[in-house]
């Protein structure tokens, strides 16, 4: 605001008064006109200053307006139902680190429900309420995993807002240039952004174009390929993973002779995921020479490669093994991994994957061979091979057909249809309990389909009866809160009561279990309510 | 207007929380899990049993008409997390009536509710008998004695101010709090708490950064003006004399006639110091067009009892305090507050600044004046922000209550014009509530 000083003749100016007051009237006089004899100088100065102060305040006028901000883009999505809006405000007000005690009580952990809420809201295609955008951006700032769904939900106005506050810069990085990505069909604008854009913008652009027209995206990459830096080439190549098709083969084949080893390896990996590619064929021939039926045709013999020739290296085989691994086994693993799985029934007497996996393997090669097939099954997303390699869910872990680790099993499960995944994990839990199930549960579709949900609840119940403490299962409990079907809540009701202490149980465990089950039931109910709110049913 | 079925929003409930930790704890309890035997009555009572860590559940009951709370938990927070959780559950349960069905209050809740009704009836009952003349005489004598003490304090303060100006404000920078602390104590002794508070603030100005001599001189001069006004109060117009008494810190009671109206809650915000939480609630009468301020206090760490979340409309009687200011006391409420989709009429920045200027005629010590700005654009300027008229005619600098509030203001505007209620003063405009340009409810900024 600007004050309009209308200093009258004879009266001391405001600046003069301040200077005099600062130094003291004993040292510096004030304008003679202001001192009217009867008062001492200090009182006269205060009189004068009071007049000035009130006059200045009364005369304040608005200042001139700064250049006005650009307007945020309109968000055409429909508004949230009122109940869902209130729920979001609640979820956002429950921020971690605000005076929480260590132990989890019997009440739901709201922060954990935010990702689910956001995903559901995005499925409905709602627009975010403007007044909650700052809280939403703050939440996304603290949790990288929240950023994609939060920013998708937050929409164009959040990007507009993020430009005002440096703390929200991440939003501009994550969604480059705001929502200013040109339409994938606007080839001129796409070309311009590809030529001139920042790296993050170009990656996002490539992703958008790839989703729209895979061939156009490849052409875009090829158009500037020779001038890109190695790291950028790697990233662009990686973008082609989505929508990979036979049409990409020629380009990938050329990338096999790239200057950068990482680029070459990635190109080889992509090619091996195309079973019809020339590279896959070459790998199939190489792998086939190493693996054969024995003389009786009832087992497998393995003859690992004796050298890694330049042809193999060009096709992405890494010549030097990591410390502690034998060279030949290392090469074998890479060949088998990159060979199309369809090679093997042909090569091994027309057997099915399950029969092949059941064949004995001579000379301790079984581990290497099965592990390589696991990697191939994951890379080629082959459900039949995955099924064979996973074996029966109830078989003991270490004796599984591929002796595969939990991490590998989780990946293999990822190639199976959702229902089959749930059934397999349910079987696993029924046989082995929950202690190793966490990773496997993580790949199951939410909400958990039956019989998986029932298996988890039964296993938790067994763990409680066995007298252990609930926090030994806090990981699975947390997952169950987020992933169990809300319809299971009524079944769990009986478990929320505090049982009598048993002699062999851990002291007080019963109460903690009751609390944990209360939280589970409470969370499931809340999720059901959240779903209804978003559907506009409440 | 039926009282039934009017439930608050979660925002309104959360606005009752005394602090952020309570808000969080309350949010967690706002789900069906820990609650049992919950219910609500047509009269606006809500109750329930909340399972805590002990074997016996806590008994929580809330009278939403107050609102007033009772809970058997040992928390000293007020309202406690259980009361907040219960209200959230009630608020979220709108229409469904699953978690909190309509019911008769159980005995433990009814006891407390009945006690409240009884006390309310007693208060409404007319005072018995007239106060005796002897009492009035004694009261007059007490008032005269107090006035003498205030006058003695004022005279001493005048002396100290003159000494300060004689020796130079520069010395105040060296002595630091010297003038503030000790003089403030003297003013407390003189039973002039208003002066004491002003003197206290005087003490911290030298440490307040660039331009402090100007601010210190302004405050000294206004204090001097108040002293002089007190010494000449007999010659002032009644309203101004009442303002001076209020500024000095002499308590008065709301004597104005009761004004019944539907009062729209424009803003509610708390300020706290070490000892006291002060809550300001701005209301606007839909019929009278009158703007009113309700003040309520709570001990540090406790939310003041009166809570009127923004966006509600309240059918109630208010009566003004003497002196022509905004301060009112809340009298009888005729119905529970209900959500109202209304927004106040607004003016442009020039009219807002002029309104503050005019108000200074009645009260030259005014820091700010409540104003609604219409069609202004929150515009970032450097680190700060201004509210600019959409036609670019003028702009007021924003003095934020909180950073998050400022971001909410920007978010709601999206670069377009909004309606903003706030306090317009000599330092700028403090936005308290915003309404989006394209419709929608009130969004509190503090």
TrEMBL record, chain A:
Residues 68-77 have a biased composition (Basic and acidic residues). It comes from the Bacteria. Residues 56-79 are annotated as: Disordered. InterPro entries: DUF5691. This is Uncharacterized protein. It comes from Streptomyces indicus.
Automatic annotation (TrEMBL), chain B:
This is SWIM zinc finger. InterPro entries: Znf_SWIM. Pfam families: SWIM. Residues 120-149 have a biased composition (Basic and acidic residues). PROSITE patterns: ZF_SWIM (PS50966). Residues 116-149 are annotated as: Disordered. The keyword Zinc applies. Keywords: Metal-binding, Zinc, Zinc-finger. Residues 58-91 form the SWIM-type domain. The keyword Repeat does not apply. Transmembrane segments: none annotated. One of its GO terms (molecular function) is zinc ion binding. It comes from the Bacteria. It comes from Streptomyces indicus.
